[in-house]
């Protein structure tokens, strides 16, 4: 959960940077082509969103994988086991 919180915080920091860079306007019509002007912020935004999605080789993937591995090694009823894996699949 710590990795989720850190990447979610990075996502909100990048969103604040984007809003600040366009003059404190939150209108989506003015946000086109900003990756040319703020490449570091846009790359951090993409990495944090990929990490939250659980892309392989990023921290969100390994923390989710570890949680699923620990749960699958313990005795859990079938409904709880299926609910865990279906909810994990839906977050991807």
Automatic annotation (TrEMBL):
InterPro entries: ND/Mrp_TM (IPR001750), NU5C-like (IPR003945). GO terms for biological process: ATP synthesis coupled electron transport; electron transport coupled proton transport. It catalyses: a ubiquinone + NADH + 5 H(+)(in) = a ubiquinol + NAD(+) + 4 H(+)(out). The keyword ATP-binding does not apply. The keyword Membrane applies. The chain crosses the membrane at residues 37-62, 74-91. Keywords: Membrane, Signal, Transmembrane, Transmembrane helix. Its EC number is 7.1.1.2. GO terms for cellular component: membrane. It holds the Pfam family Proton_antipo_M. It is found in: Membrane. Residues 1-90 form the NADH:quinone oxidoreductase/Mrp antiporter transmembrane domain. Residues 1-21 form the signal peptide. One of its GO terms (molecular function) is NADH dehydrogenase (ubiquinone) activity. It is a multi-pass membrane protein. Core subunit of the mitochondrial membrane respiratory chain NADH dehydrogenase (Complex I) that is believed to belong to the minimal assembly required for catalysis. Complex I functions in the transfer of electrons from NADH to the respiratory chain. The immediate electron acceptor for the enzyme is believed to be ubiquinone. This is NADH:ubiquinone reductase (H(+)-translocating).
